[in-house]
Amino acid sequence: MTKRVEIVFKSNPINFIREATGTKSNTIRKPDQDGHDARFRILDKYIQGEKMNLYVGIQHTKLNETFFRKVSDVTKFEGLYIISWRI
């Protein structure tokens, strides 16, 4: 069985509501400049086809609330990561 892998990103209140309800079913992220953020190394492995059950957690910036969605696609475009999921 493929292991579940989770990464978490913070989201502002307006985007958080849209993401949680499924109105917006993706998030776009810019990696840190030094390359030390393990989340982006995981995303690169996913893009390269490594088998994993990848879940993205979206955390509200002001509330202690996080939801998780199973990632359906990760695309890298002009240095940005587009992480998509289905509800």
Note the main attributes of this structure.
87 residues
Protein described:
- The protein is of the alpha+beta class.
- The chain has one domain (4-85): Roll (Archaeosine Trna-guanine Transglycosylase, Chain: A, domain 4).
- 22% of the residues lie in helices and 44% in strands.
- It contains two helices and five strands.
- It has helices spanning 13-21, 38-47; strands at residues 4-11, 26-29, 53-60, 66-77, 80-85.
- The chain has a five-stranded mixed β-sheet.
- The longest helix has 10 residues, at 38-47.
- The mean pLDDT is 95.
SSE inventory with pairings:
Elements: E1 4-11, H1 13-21, E2 26-29, H2 38-47, E3 53-60, E4 66-77, E5 80-85
Parallel strand pairs: 1-3
Antiparallel strand pairs: 2-5, 3-4, 4-5
**Named CATH topology:** Archaeosine Trna-guanine Transglycosylase, Chain: A, domain 4
Radius of gyration: 13 Å
- Please give the alpha-carbon distance between the first and last residues: 23 Å
What form results from the Cα inertia axes? globular
**CATH class type:** Mainly Beta
Corresponding CATH superfamily: Hypothetical protein
CATH architecture: Roll
Runs with pLDDT <50, length 5+? none
Main sheet summary: 5 strands, mixed
* Computed structural class: alpha+beta
Q: Give the beta-strand count.
A: 5
Number of helices: 2
In helices, the fraction of residues equals: 10-25%
Structure summary:
With 87 residues, this protein is an alpha+beta fold. The protein has helices spanning 13-21, 38-47; strands spanning 4-11, 26-29, 53-60, 66-77, 80-85.
